[in-house]
Amino acid sequence: MNKAYCITADELAERGYKNIPDELLSAKHLIYSSPATLAFNSPGAQGFGVKRAGLAVPGSVMLLVSPACCGRNTSALGAESSYADRFFYLLLDDTDIVTGRHLSKIPQAVKEVCDSLDYTPSAVMICITCVDALLGTDMERVCRKCSDFAGVPTVPCYMYALTREKRLPPMSAVRKSVYSLLKPTKRRPDEVNIMGFFSPLMDDCELYALLKSAGVKKVREISRCETFEEYEKIAQANFSLVLNTEARYAAQEMQRSLGIPSVELLRLYQADKIHNQYRLLGKAIGAELDDREYYDDTLKTIENFKDKYGEITFAVGEFSNCDPIETALALLRYGFKVSEIFATVGELNFSFVKKIAELSPKTRIYSNLSPTMLYYEPDGEIDAYIGKDCKYYHPDAVGADWNEEIQPFGYAGVKALFKELDKQLNGNKRKGERKQ
Amino acid sequence: MKNLLKFLTPFAPDQSGASAALYELGGLIVICDAGGCAGNVCGFDEPRWFTRKSAIFSAGLRDMDAILGRDDKLVEKLSKAAQQIKPAFTAIIGTPVPAVIATDFRALRKMTEKATGLPCITCECTGTNYYDAGEEQAFLDIFKAFAEKSLPVQKGRLGIIGATPLEISSISADKFITACKKQGWKDPVCYGMGTGLDEIKAASSAEKNLVISPAGIKAAEYLKEKFSTPYEIDFPCIPESVINSAQNLNGKKVLIIHTQTAANSLREKLTSEYGCECTAATFFMQKSTLCRKGDFKLNGEEDLQNITSQDYDVVIGDKALRRAMKNFKGEFIDFPHFALSGNLTD
Description:
The complex is a heterodimer. In chain A, helix 13 (271-285) packs antiparallel against helix 14. Helices cover 41% and strands 14% of the residues of chain A. By secondary structure, chain A is α/β, with parallel strands linked by helices. Chain B has helices at residues 14-22, 36-45, 63-68, 71-85, 96-101, 105-116, 131-146, 165-168, 174-182, 197-201, 217-227, 240-246, 260-274, 301-305, 338-341; strands spanning 4-5, 28-31, 56-58, 90-93, 120-123, 157-161, 187-190, 208-211, 231-233, 253-257, 277-282, 296-297, 314-317, 331-334. By secondary structure, chain B is α/β, with parallel strands linked by helices. Chains A and B meet through strand 2, helix 2, helix 4, strand 4 and helix 5 of A and strand 1, helix 1, helix 2, strand 3 and helix 3 of B.
């Protein structure tokens, strides 16, 4: 019988990062389009893919220049959504994709798009795809022509699925694009940017309070900018906090062009590591960040959850607002069990695999991308799942999809996760009571 | 400007049509792309994906695979998956990437067949054509590859050709089966929806074929030529919501925008039962033999903008089109077409 490929944490740790089995490496096999794959492998498909992300600049519109297929799933955003009036398409035909003749049409298309609107957009984001990647299009040059012709700033967004594993994958490139309209301005010592996401952090994230305690008066996130004028003020920050490695390149560019340095923080679910990270952040910015209250409160939330439900067993997936390997390690360290993880193993999270191997050597690790996942069958029961991909594999289980657009971070993220799990498990318990 | 969409989103492309036609047939289907096209198929254009699994994969091409034309690497990955999955056949569906680098699909098919020992179907889709072009190719090729034996004709068996969710805006062909049974057919089978490869192999046993979309005509012609199976063209299942709305249209001038077969079927009803004066228009395949005087082809968004209330009292079509019809002030009746809006009728 066909079975989904998996490897236990101890086997994987023993093999080492340099010897990860082919089944866990996307370049070595065909790719199964599981729900997580759609988010991972198709840069325009889910959530904030390149297309939606490119529109993070307030007042901007997007012109997708591609064969029709690349823009097809934008229909999912719906004609009624706020995005419906912001997407435009210049469709390429067979001759265009071979000769590149479409490039000469783009300035006129940009002008027609701008003329069709009853306002002047702050920018036109030109989204191009694999075709132009292969044609070697100099889209920066085309955009300059468009800006001159239409009188509106025009910026390229590269939705190059072909370059997913390169130095500048699509989701990193688009972050560079959305900050590229910023101009040098007078900097303010009490302002900070948060970079990394296209939607804001949870309002109750302690990071805001900790920064305030360090003298920061204004924290800016691109997703909270309602106007282009607000967006432009991102350029006056003293420094940026980068909460997602995909924003690293954009932050480096910001340092180069605007002189704004950055500090990188990871989204973690291990409370002691979060504490350590804040301690290091305090050192870096020359302030003592007192996070004791948040730390204690987080541990209390976890203890209460454990008292209520016991040492339950989880499955953790990657279609979620967490690194599933780090989150699995956190759960194990809190005293829970983790039977399976659906993850993409990389250089960054391999160190967590080694620690999981020590605490729970038989935890199974699956790749959402492996063709064998077509045959996934649950092997043993789980009490709760984290991640929408887990729900796909365990349709009858309860748990947290944990992929909402508002971004969890820090202690607030950990607490919110356990509160959501409590809500779901409690609701399920009540349903069970009613059945009885 | 031609090819500029300001109000509509792009329609389902050819690779979505090809994979929809093959989806339920037990093959290993590889979308020859970097990930985005397979994401579009599984995440959007294939509504069966979340309820019924199929071995449909992305080739996961990367820039150097395309630049260096590493077909051997693709065949190696495909063979490995075929060993794990043991499909009845393999299929490779093109996208813009192989179109740009001019992949030799014939050679790719031969290499794959040699490596796997299984029949391989290749659909040279480019992502620039509409879904029906991909369906047409896939339906024809699957019958050519598997409907080989001439079996005794079974009286009462009707083969339905040309159905996919993109055409019928439903994940099941049950309503079509029921409609055909009502017409007296004892054993209607809908190829590719609710049936598998065995039914394709036994296509010669059908007493007659019913073609429900222009994309199925070539396959029906092939079966007629090979097994002398006659066929007719009809779309016997207009959604109830459309029929109910049509009851108030007595004598009106109506424009129906849909697939040519669905529009013709609805026109027949509106003309004969309500005395309407109907014109059919489509963005998709339009066979001259199925056209009536005044029917026309829509070539882009601008054509929709040219439709006015002076020309028609009523327009029937997918509601996604309404947004582009700025000059039409008359009545608009929604007739969902999944290939346009991604909306199902059920």
